[in-house]
Amino acid sequence: MLVAVVLLSACKKEGDDRDKFVGTYNTSCTLVSDVPGIPTNYTLTISKSSLNNYTISLENIHNSGKSVSATVVGSVITINLQQTIFDKPVTGGGTLVKNVLTFNTTYNISGEETESWQHVATKQ
Questions:
Q1: Per-residue model confidence as pLDDT tens digits over 33-86
Q2: Is residue 7 part of a domain?
Q3: Of the residues 18, 23, 52, 89, which has the fewest C-beta atoms closer than 10 A?
Q4: What is the pLDDT of residue 14?
C-alpha cells in the first residue's frame, strides 16, 4: 500500500503557474526613466495564452487597449522584446507576490532613447 501512495503522489500533476496570474487588476503605472510623473491608473486583464503552457496575455497594458505576451516561471513574468504598445518595441518583467503584480516596462522611443515605467497591479 505504501508503494501505491508513493507512486500516486509522484504522478500528481503540478499546477499551471499561469493560474495565479489570471484575473483583473487595478493598476497604477509611473514613469521612472525621467522626472517621475503623475501615476496613470488603468484596468489590466491577464489571461492564459494559447501559444503554450508558459505564456500569458496582459491586456490593456499601459491603458493602451493593446496587449503584450509574457512568459511565466513560478511567480516571475518576462516580457520579451515585442512591437506593440504605441508602435514601439517593449520589454520588461516583474513578480507576483500574493495578489500584487509589480512589473516594469521599457519602451524604445527612438534609437538609443528609452522610457521606463513601473506598474503596480492589485488583483480585484
A1: 777 678 899 999 999 999 899 999 999 998 888 899 999 999 999 999 997 666
A2: no
A3: 52
A4: 60
Q: Is residue 4 part of a domain?
A: no
Contact 61, 85 (CB under 8 A): yes
> Among residues 13, 123, 20, 24, which one has the least CA distance to residue 76?
20
* 8 vs 123 pLDDT, higher one: 123
The answer to whether residue 6 sits within a structural domain is: no
Q: Indicate if the pLDDT at residue 120 is higher than 60.
A: yes
Q: What is the CATH number of the domain that holds 53?
A: 2.40.128.20
Q: Note down the domain range covering 75.
A: 15-123
Please check whether residue 65 lies inside any domain of the structure: yes
Task: Give the DSSP H or E segment for 4.
Answer: helix 2-10
* Residue 10 main-chain phi, psi, to 5 deg: -70, -25
Quick check: 77 and 22 in contact, CB under 8 A? no
DSSP state of 68: E
Domain count, the chain: 1
Average pLDDT across the chain, whole number: 86
